[in-house]
Specification:
The protein is an alpha+beta fold. Among the domains are: 109 residues, Cytochrome Bc1 Complex, Chain D, domain 2 (Orthogonal Bundle), CATH 1.10.760.10; 199 residues, Neuraminidase, CATH 2.120.10. Strands 1, 21, 22, 23, 24, 25, 26, 27 and 28 form a nine-stranded mixed sheet that branches. The longest helix is centred in the first third of the chain and has 14 residues. It is globular and about 70 Å long.
Length: 570
């Protein structure tokens, strides 16, 4: 097994408007508080409200904010935090320049009072502009890694409104946080989760609360962060017999001892918990039963947690893969926050897709099993985690299988590349050595990517089978191969898209193959015969697009801001 020589390896718009364009002249900072109490309160608020998208040293969803208060007027910063769209639409030069580039609005924070804003600015004022010690300074940056524009196909698919989920918050910009639609294999019933804590069952196309996470786990939290909360769910293939359901959710740091932690010098933002639930009656409309904790994982920040779990429902009893649970664990933000040693490491859990036997007991904590056929089981004596199935992911957003048996993982990228990956056991998918098929320098400015040097061949990285850059979209969502019968035009197509913009893409499944990038095409939807964009349908500039699939192979579209679910039709 080859390990990387780290000595050799060198939100989307968000506050980018602020960072990219400096005010002319000297910025007056005399009004910024410098007392320790204001700074401490500002740090707390920044962690709660801002850290999901921003750090002070590297780009995340948004740009690094170090040194910002010395470059931009404080009043403008506060106004922008409260209502960025208002400032941009009013013709602000700085905002409009970057809106043309990023094509997405930052989420507003109208609930912050003036004192809170002052405290956030006070904390920001303690952070200097980053200075990078990079080995890639002399390399040419790839400004446009994929220069060709994704073409619009002639594929138009009908969209049928199914239901709208109840508001889970008073935030008019984000009525719900529905992110996943799936099904129970035996009954074929559809279920949808809201990150804020509820798993719904669709009964006659109407949502009925099935499992209330805050009621069952009082330590449950769904803030801060864009993905904090009820992360994912998966019904056991034999749920009708054993009543087993698996979920992930978040709890505050230090709620309980973590099974996977790290040095005390690295902060813990929160904990992700995988739970096995046993229902008393698998056929009941609302869950009643007990829960058993399988594993608890510390994460360094509120991003890139454990947002996907699933079973391979294309496997059958007797197959090696049957009943084994796949778990997508992101890097927890560790790379962009200066702790790259936590990711891309066979000794740690972060940045990997895991595979466990939830009914086994040979793991270190005795609460689950490690399949003997996992690729790194034989290296456990060298400290490798036997749970790891594949590695090198920043944020493995969705795990799915095609009817041909291919396992695919969509990986949300950093500042440049969104990717779809064909998974083979033991393979390395590159992060944070690469972003997609391109080199990234973790010691330098991580917004930059470079052509991959020939020396990288020795590391045996497996590169994406499909990818797009941030000219096209900002965060990959989905997808699924269409395996239904109601929309013949979707046959043999793998559907996915972009979370914020709501653009819809596909690749032909015949083009999915290691060693080449499948051509991506865009497609459209219509309602009552009229072309519609998802932005138009949800009435929000940020669509927060997600996909779902039912037992018959039909595909659904979810728009988070308005909590609506649609079905694709012919």
């Amino acid at each position: 097994m080859k390990y990387f020589n780290w000595g050799f390896i060198f939100c989307t718009l968000s506050l980018a408007f602020i960072v990219a364009c400096k005010n002319e002249g000297i910025v007056d900072t005399s009004s910024i508080a410098t007392d320790s109490l204001s700074i401490a309160q500002g740090k707390r608020l920044f962690t709660q409200q801002c850290a999901a998208c921003h750090s002070f040293s590297q780009e995340g969803i948004g740009p690094p904010l170090g040194g910002l208060t010395k470059e931009v007027n404080t009043g403008w910063i506060k106004s922008f935090i409260l209502n960025p769209k208002k400032i941009i639409d009013a013709g602000d030069k700085r905002g409009q320049q970057l809106m043309a580039r990023y094509k997405s609005y930052m989420i507003p924070f109208p609930g912050l009072d003036n004192q809170s804003l002052d405290q956030i600015v006070a904390y920001m004022h303690t952070q200097d502009k980053p200075v990078f010690a990079s080995g890639s300074d002399t390399l040419p940056v790839l400004a446009n890694p994929y220069p060709d524009t994704i073409p619009m196909s002639d594929l138009v698919v009908g969209l049928k409104y199914i239901t709208q989920f109840p508001a889970s918050d008073t935030n008019k910009f984000l009525r719900t946080r529905i992110t996943k639609l799936g099904f129970e294999p035996s009954s074929k019933n559809l279920f949808v989760l809201d990150l804020r804590g509820k798993l719904y069952r669709l009964k006659n196309d109407q949502p009925v609360v099935y499992l209330d996470m805050p009621a069952l786990r009082p330590k449950f939290i769904h803030t801060p962060g864009l993905a904090t909360g009820f992360g994912s769910f998966a019904f056991h293939p034999e749920f009708s017999k054993n009543g087993l359901l698996y979920t992930t959710h978040t709890e505050p740091a230090n709620t309980a001892k973590a099974d996977f932690g790290y040095a005390d010098s690295i902060p813990v933002a929160l904990q992700w918990v995988l739970t096995e639930w046993t229902t008393k009656n698998p056929g009941e409309i609302k869950f009643t039963g007990t829960g058993r904790e399988l594993v608890r994982i510390n994460v360094e920040s509120v991003i890139h947690g454990v947002q996907e779990i699933d079973f391979n429902l294309r496997s059958n009893p007797g197959d090696e893969d049957y009943g084994l649970l796949y778990i997508g664990v992101g890097d927890g933000g560790s790379v962009e926050h200066g702790y790259p040693q936590l990711a891309h490491n066979l000794h740690t859990v972060w940045g990997n897709v895991l595979r466990i036997d939830p009914r086994g007991n040979n793991a270190a904590n005795g609460q689950y099993g490690i399949p003997a056929t996992n690729p790194f089981v034989d290296e456990k004596e060298n400290g490798a985690l036997g749970e790891i199935y594949a590695r090198g992911f920043r944020n493995p957003h969705r795990i799915t299988w095609t009817k041909a048996g291919q396992m695919l993982v969509s990986n949300i990228g950093h500042a440049n590349i969104e990717s779809l990956n064909l998974i083979l056991p033991g393979h390395d998918y590159g992060w944070p050595i690469t972003e997609g098929p391109f080199m990234i320098d973790i010691k330098g400015n991580m917004k930059n990517i470079f052509a991959r040097p020939a020396a990288y061949d020795q590391y045996n990285i497996t590169y994406p089978v499909a990818a797009f850059d941030h000219d096209e979209g900002l965060a990959i969502t989905g997808g699924y191969e269409y395996t239904g019968t109601q929309v013949p035009s979707l046959e043999d197509k793998f559907l996915f898209g972009d979370i914020p913009k709501g653009r819809l893409f596909y690749v032909n499944t015949s083009d999915i193959s290691l060693g080449r990038i499948a051509p991506i095409k865009e497609w459209q939807v219509s309602v009552d015969g009229k072309l519609k964009t998802l932005k138009e349908l949800c009435g929000n500039d940020r669509v927060d697009l997600h996909f779902g699939k039912d037992a018959a192979g039909e595909i659904y579209i979810l728009t988070k801001p308005d909590g609506k679910v649609y079905k694709l039709i012919d």
